[in-house]
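User: Structure tokens for this complex, please. No commentary.
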Amino acid sequence: MRILQVRDLALSFGGLNVIDRLSFDVDEGSIVSLIGPNGAGKTSVFNCLTGFYKADSGEIRFMDQPVTKLKPHKITQKGMARTFQNLRLFKQMTVLENVMSGMHCRTRAGALGAVLRSGSQRREEAHIRSVAQECLEFVGILALKDRLARNLPYGDQRRVEWARALATRPRLLLFDEPAAGLNYDEKERLIGLIRRIREELGITIFLIEHDMGLVMQISEKVVVIDYGKKIAEGGCDAVQCDPKVIEAYLGREDEEGAADERNRS
Amino acid sequence: MAEPSTPPPAAAATSGLAGLEERLFVFFDKRSRRRLVQGLLVLAAVSIPLVGDSYLLEILTNSFFYIVLCLGLNIVVGYAGLLDLGYAAFFAVGAYTTGILTSQFDWNFWLTIPAAVFFSIIAGVIIGGPTLRLRSDYLAIVTLGFGEITRIAARNLKELTGGASGLIGINRPSFFGLELNQIHHYYYVFFILVLLAVFVSFRLQHSRLGRAWQYVREDEDAAEAMGIDRVAVKLYAYVIGAVFAGVAGCFFAGKMTAISPETFQFMQSATILMAVVLGGMGKIPGMIVGALALILFPEIFREIGSVRMLVFGVVLVMMMIFRPQGIWPERRN
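Assistant:
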């Protein structure tokens, strides 16, 4: 079954086509990567999927429902969670409080319940806390739960963000460059974690990543875009040999200086 | 994994004020000690009318009233991080609801409170609904405008509000047959309001909603990505803040028995906001200290006449330079 279907997605900023008639699918239970040179429009695709950008045209279907025009919080409620390329933690709050934010959309207590501290409100608070702790345990930083998020080392802050996304109880998880800034060991652990998220929690994974080693190691399918257009799609081996992909990353041989021109990071 | 570099907390505790603050913080870290100090403060507040003269009671009652308003505005500004420059409008809604219903329709005072809550919620939704989509600085300007609109409307709706001369003959509340007409009655009434406001603020702060306000305040986009409806959460804060001011306004009208539009000028909103910032946004003790400082300072220095406002201004500027986080700021480590 396809958990995510993107059809003819287009987005432009002031005449610049950031995403150009892009179509692809993500199968339920798979691990799919979105790659492309710098500035190819990968994060823009994520922002469209999660409702932060409104696409000019095209359709996004998530679990067979259109989500193209929904607001970000509605999309998260439907079961699509994301992480950010540059960490967006609630820095002044504890690790546990950060992760508890994910459960907000799965709970309901309002102002009256809070003031009266009713039985159902107290049970719900306990539930939020225990789910958050489970998520922290899953990513392996439960011991840090009472620390302030901003005081953690970078690698652990990343893990807080993953735990926070898991706490929204997603069906599909979008990772925006999860390995950026991680050292070798941390990357190895990330690969293990992504596999466990799929194996143990049954969550479909869609990620943007620059680390090709990591992408080729875990992806079952790779979508390659350049200038907002899809240039290749398929298994790791097929994509790696695809002349268009090689051209996008390295430039064409017969075009002198094209490689430099392409190097727009 | 390497130990992260933590800010030096104890290092600051070397001398003078910083050292005192550090020791106070350590002292209040224990729950039992906090409870003890809170109990003593409540006991002191309850027994003051037995010894104090009516001048003192009048000032303290006024301070209590401002504490309630500050706690209400704190929900909007401190918890949810929304800059509101027209908070007096909600206070006006409560006061006028009580004023109009008791003086023109002869309602019982207590029945006007639910009505005031209702109208505060309506006013909060009408003002907040369209404006809370705006980012902070625009919101400040729009709330400023709404504050003025409310005051001018109160002045021009002559049949209902008595126009510029205001309403007189507002029914005083009575309590089991006892008409509340002495200053010590109101001292206790407003003291109970303070306790209630502190209780509600505390419960809200430590709840799912309280955390949602903090998430939105810290990073709106991340909060949305976590499934939090930022407009709904802000509207909640705005409406609850409005209800605080509305209820305080009812008792204000009941105590004064007369109200006029000039009570609800922009300076009123600015004063409450000033106390909130002065005390330390987001902290309940900060609101109490801020409101007390704001009301007591001009009274204590009454002898030096109008110069006191100048001194007060200088103190405020110094505060903003040397302690921008307020007298009693949020503190976590």
